[in-house]
Design a protein that fits this description.
The chain is α+β, with helices and mostly antiparallel strands. It contains seven helices and 14 strands.
Amino acid sequence: MKDIRSYPIYRIKGQGMVLEDDDIVVEYPFTIFIDDEEIITLLCTPKSLKYLVLGFLYSEGLLEGMESIDRIQIHEENGCAYVYLKNANNFFKELQGKRTITSGCGKGTVFYNVLDSFKSKKIENKIEIEIDKIKDFMRDFSRKSEIFLLTGGVHSCGLYDKSGILIFEEDIGRHNALDKILGQALEKDIDLSDKIILTSGRISSEIILKVAKRGIPMVVSRSAPTSLAIDIAQELNIGLIGFVRGEKLNIYNGSIPSSKS
């Protein structure tokens, strides 16, 4: 399924007006079923849907690993995913009564109480990386967003190690883009304990919580964090860097060397 659709628009430039086609990102309702029970409908970009399913369940702490899954069926035309688990009883016990609407774009939902995050295990594996390398990563990251360059309508997310980018995803929702990253990492059995998440969007509490649940030690954005995101990052020992633009950046939590060694 295509993630971009063309629409005729009137474009105004100064006193002039021209009728032309414009590329628009597709917004796609995508419903996840667990053992034939409807769980949630995400509003997303119709790309990397299997990774989105895996990452969403994984990042919410509802899926321990690939070994929990019996099979997954993706029906793109119907906008549905059917996930069959090997142990459904434990899944529904954990799910019950924990759905919370979040501040995320694209109908963000999490299945936990935000205050419980402060009881989560702190990140022990701190990552050391130079400021110059963070700036280089963000410049590289910003050039990779083809859908954004065409439409201006998506968020981007990347998984990096100290050498560079490992995975890149885009979606109308910044949390969806992160879930796609986490889903691909899960399927490919990538160790996340020494990795960095780069994101284009605001760093809100649900982004930090998704990262914390998977033991990722650092989040970097070209946008701003919220107050609760900073509080959680400080409590759980997650490096938090925002407003990475050109030669500027803000360190909200953690410390990194000032220059290349």
